[in-house]
Amino acid sequence: MSATEVLARFRAEVGAAVTRARRASGEVGERNAKLRERTRDLAARARERKVEPGAQATSAEVRESAAGFRADRGLAVEQVPDAAELAAPAPVETEPVTLGSAAVAGPSGQLPRVSDDDEDFSQSRILY
């Protein structure tokens, strides 16, 4: 074998190795992107308390281990509610309700006059 053949064979092997490495790197990048997206979705669901009925909660030991792993590597450790908080119903905020009725404009588009008169104006909507 001549030096040119050896060099050509070496370049071909290096080229094939680089191609395999790029392909593997791309596959790992795609897998990591999918994992990050799924993790982001799960964290959002936990924050919004969207948990399917009967879903298994991650044990406290596993969550502590995962948090320690992230903290050791300098990664962000997001605080999410634990299983008991997720299972509890979310507090419902309601708007304050004011009782009574508001005056309605009549056919002419005018609201009834406001006065301190003691007369019965229960039919004022019809009159205006």
Binned strand content: under 5%
What is the H/E string?
HHHH
In whole angstroms, how far apart are the ends?
Answer: 110 Å
The quaternary state of the protein chains shown equals single chain
Radius of gyration: 35 Å
Structural class: mainly alpha
Helix content estimate = 40-55%
Number of helices: 4
Shape: elongated
Count the E strands. 0
Biggest sheet layout? none
Mean pLDDT value: 77
Unreliable stretches covering 5 or more consecutive residues: none
Structure description:
It is a single chain. Helices cover 52% and strands 0% of the residues. The chain contains 4 helices and no strands. The mean pLDDT is 77. It has helices spanning 3-47, 60-72, 83-87, 124-127. It starts with a helix and ends with a helix. It is an all-alpha fold and 128 residues long.
In short:
52% of the residues lie in helices and 0% in strands.
